[in-house]
Write a structure and sequence with these properties.
Elements (H helix, E strand, L loop, with lengths): L1 H25 L9 H10 L3 H8 E3 L2 H4 L9 H10 L6 E3 L10 E5 L10 E2 L5 H5 L4 H17 L4 E3 L22 H16 L4 E7 L12 E3 L2 H5 L2 H12 L3 E4 L3 E2 L2 E2 L4 H11 L5 E4 L8 H5 L5 E4 L11 H9 L5 H17 L14 H13 L3 E5 L11 E5 L7 E2 L8 E2 L19 E2 L3 H8 L4 E5 L4 H9 L3 E8 L15 H11 L3 E7 L13 E4 L7 H10 L36 E3 L8 H7 L16 E3 L3 E4 L5 E9 L5 E11 L12 E10 L4 E7 L7 E3 L4 E4 L2 E8 L7 E7 L2 E4 L3
Parallel strand pairs: 1-12, 3-5, 4-16, 5-6, 6-8, 7-9, 7-22, 8-11, 14-18, 14-19, 19-20, 20-21
Antiparallel strand pairs: 2-3, 9-10, 13-21, 15-17, 23-25, 24-25, 25-28, 26-27, 26-31, 29-30, 30-33, 31-32
The structure holds beta-D-glucopyranose (BGC).
The site of beta-D-glucopyranose has 9 residues, from loops.
Length: about 750
């Protein structure tokens, strides 16, 4: 019996083997031993033109779609989208069942799965997790949100926000990872690595120079090629180098006169030619403005129809077909588009690991989010060591709906939290609202952490009452909020009466702590008077618990600012944002004269002292950095490093930051006196030290030469500076670099 069973098992496995071999011969793209590009090419070779065009067209919202004319969206596609699109999600691209090519189910965005009405776990905002200065944090976050996405039926994540915070008032800065190319490269790269490790395709977006939301669909950004290659595009290049995203989402704006999604320079020249990108460029939703021009300029997937002003006249398989027939689009280009779309589906394991809807461990996922927040919150000020709160008997907590939850940003990255919106009904209720508060109350969390203290809460609406409560309490904590959302920019001033509230509370009780929940930088006219300030950004699903952990000292703060906080509006590179708070659709232009001098670089060039500098962040312990070490065997082989020791009495995490300054930055052609070239976070027990060394990306030492498409280093002395913030670099060592030049083509 036993041997019969073994024989039949053997026969069955032989049969399975034979059929796999047969399948691999008849459908070579199923052969998992072949490289992804060969599998993609083989699959495309087996496709009809309609099947190829099917991969190129992405749809959303079946309710709208059925109203489209049949010659724009065929009845077959309408039926397929209706049956298979996940209601309330971002987009859907039909699969090709006869060839085993799965449909593409697309979900937003960088902090978690966004489907209207579907409760999922939100990470802290991307800007918040960038403050961890620890790519392991964003990678763990990427794994968590991708696991939820796959369990929800998705295989493409519209994540990976990587625009630099060139404009501090940009309403989407919270979806991005700061003002520095290296920090953005490593932090967004970490997120994408996490997502793609789970057999999903991730985008990086919004490509490129989409640095303001005002008039985002009509603004023309003007910037020189060297300036963008050394700033916005450098950040994307670093993300690309570190995480190899399967897709790149082109943005709404025009860049130097051409829409980003039909911008030959961006998509063909830089991305595909210079960087060797093998994946596909997908349009942002409604960012397509032509058919042949866009396709020939490198757009591979026309997504999100009929969302946001797409026009059927240029957005349909019919139009593309006509353009092929009249020779406007070569057939080889259509093949290339289809192959590029398939490449990551094979390379990232999407085809070989089909998504399966299943259960989600929300408790475990919320823990990932809380850990991310705890690694990210930034202690900006702590005069007299007011924090952590030890031995305090009475605490007044004021404002910011802190009794209910913590704020989140609005728009397509807005996740519906598990447990629902903690503060429903706030304005704006419609796009890019609703305003969402994660149901994680700092008040409840602090009460749980400090049962011995009397903790009272009052909203900040009545300033007098709030100040009176503060006066009768030992310590006051004011929560201030600044809501940001996609499609709008906002001033840096806190809205409403919040500045007056803080001023009144600190006057009533000098032991006042301010906790800031903001999209990005804000102005703090009260900063000089308030002894302690904690920047929490949008701290995610368990933000309340994370804030309480830091306030009580259960967790030692270790976040550092990924953006500079200006001292006043007068320090901004642009006094006005063109089209700010005007109805959408006005054609405006913005010229980025500051070039690559973004954030701390701008402050350095102008000699401005920000309120809080890029890289700044305090701890409950103290750290000392050693003299840095640097070796240079030419620009392509520069290593920097140093060590840091915890000189205080509690465990904590330091962030070592290395910047390089040419001896004469203007002569070297740099945009500013210094650039961040390396950073490392180190968890240290009291008395413990840690060394680190890192290889410097040579592009961070170079300038971009447009005429030869190359990177150029000017020989001379460079100062390697180590410290714990861009304005705190006590240690320095010199290296000498020779003249050098190399091609920008990877
Ligand atoms: C946003 C993208 C998003 C897309 C799909 C657009 O409005 O700009 O970031 O991925 O919508 O929802």
């Amino acid at each position: 019996m036993k041997s019969l069973h073994t024989t039949s098992l053997f026969a069955a496995s032989l049969l399975a083997c034979a059929s796999t071999v047969a399948l691999a011969q008849s459908q070579p793209w199923t052969d998992t031993s072949k490289p992804a590009d060969q599998r993609a090419a083989a699959a495309v070779a087996a496709m009809t033109l309609d099947e190829k065009l099917g991969l190129v067209m992405g749809y959303t919202d079946p309710e709208q779609l059925v109203k489209e004319p049949d010659d724009i969206v065929s009845p077959a596609i309408k039926a397929d989208v209706k049956a298979n699109h996940i209601k309330g999600s971002a987009g859907y691209i039909a699969g090709i069942p006869r060839l085993g090519i799965p449909a593409q189910w697309q979900t937003d965005a960088s902090i978690g799965v966004r489907v209207t009405g579907m409760e999922r776990t939100a990470l802290p905002s991307s800007l918040a997790t960038a403050a961890s200065f620890d790519p392991k944090v964003t990678e763990a976050g990427g794994i968590m949100i991708a696991t939820e996405a796959r369990a929800s039926g998705f295989n493409v994540f519209l994540a990976g926000g990587g625009n630099l915070a060139r404009e501090p008032r940009n309403g989407r800065n919270f979806e991005y990872t700061g003002e520095d190319p290296l920090l953005t490269g490593r932090m967004t790269g970490g997120l994408i690595n996490g997502i793609q490790s789970q057999h999903m395709v991730s985008t990086m977006k919004h490509w490129a120079v989409n640095d303001q939301e005002s008039q985002r669909t009509t603004v023309d950004a003007t910037i020189s090629k060297p300036a963008m290659r050394q700033s916005d595009l450098l950040a994307f290049e670093m993300i690309y180098d570190l995480s190899n995203p399967g897709s790149v989402m082109c943005s709404y704006n025009l860049l130097n006169g051409d829409w980003a999604c039909e911008n030959d320079y961006l998509n063909n020249r830089v991305l595909k030619q210079d960087w060797g990108f093998k994946g596909y460029v997908m349009s942002d939703w409604g960012a397509v403005h032509s058919s042949a021009k866009a396709a020939n300029a490198g757009l591979d997937q026309f997504t999100g129809y009929p969302c946001c002003g797409h026009h059927g006249a240029f957005f349909s398989a019919k139009t593309l077909k006509a353009d092929i027939e009249n020779g406007a689009i070569p057939m080889s280009r259509i093949d290339d588009m289809a192959e590029r779309i398939l490449w990551p589906l094979f390379a990232k394991g999407v085809v070989d690991n089909p998504v399966k809807v299943g259960p989600i461990d929300f408790e475990a996922d919320a823990n990932v989010s809380q850990k991310a927040a705890e690694a990210s919150l930034v202690l900006l000020k702590n005069a007299g060591n007011l924090l952590p709160l030890t031995g305090v008997k009475s605490i007044a907590m004021i404002g910011g709906h802190a009794d209910k939850g913590v704020m989140a940003g609005g728009g397509s990255s807005g996740v519906t939290p598990v447990g629902g919106n903690a503060v429903p009904g706030l304005e704006p209720k419609t796009w890019p609202g609703p305003v969402v508060f994660m149901p994680s109350s700092p008040v409840e969390a602090l009460k749980a952490a400090k049962p011995e203290a009397t903790i009272s809460y009052i909203s900040g609406d009545n300033i007098k009452k709030a100040a009176a409560l503060a006066k009768t309490s030992e310590v006051a904590i004011v929560f201030v909020t600044q809501w940001m959302g996609e499609g709008i920019d906002n001033p840096l001033e806190l809205p409403g009466n919040q500045d007056a509230l803080v001023a009144a509370v600190v006057k009533a009780n000098p032991k006042t702590i301010v906790v800031v929940e903001s999209g990005g930088a804000i102005l703090m006219p009260w900063a000089g008077k308030v002894p302690a300030i904690l920047e929490a950004f949008y701290p995610g699903a368990r933000g309340g618990q994370a804030i309480a952990s830091i306030l009580t000292g259960k967790v030692n703060p270790s976040g550092h600012l990924p953006i500079s906080f200006p001292a006043s509006n007068a320090q901004l590179a642009h006094a006005e944002i063109p089209g700010f708070h005007k109805p959408d659709g006005i054609r405006v232009g913005i010229t980025y004269d500051e070039g690559a001098a973004i954030g701390y670089k701008w402050y350095d060039v102008k000699g401005y002292k920000p309120l809080f500098a890029f890289g700044h962040g305090l701890s409950y312990t103290t750290f000392a950095t050693s003299a840095p070490v640097a070796t240079a065997d030419g620009p392509n082989d520069v290593s920097v490093g140093g060590s840091v020791t915890n000189t205080g009495s509690v465990a904590g995490a330091a962030v070592m930051q290395v910047y390089i300054s040419p001896d004469n930055w203007q002569a070297a052609g740099w945009e500013a006196p210094k650039r961040l070239v390396a950073f490392q976070k180190a968890e240290l027990a009291p008395g413990q030290g840690q060394n680190f060394t890192a290889k410097v990306d040579p592009k961070l030492l170079a300038t971009y030469d447009e005429t030869t498409d190359s990177w150029v280093v000017k020989g001379g002395i460079y100062h390697v500076r180590l410290g714990q913030a861009s304005d705190d670099l006590p240690q320095s060592v010199d290296i000498t670099l020779p003249d050098s030049r190399w091609s920008a083509v990877h």
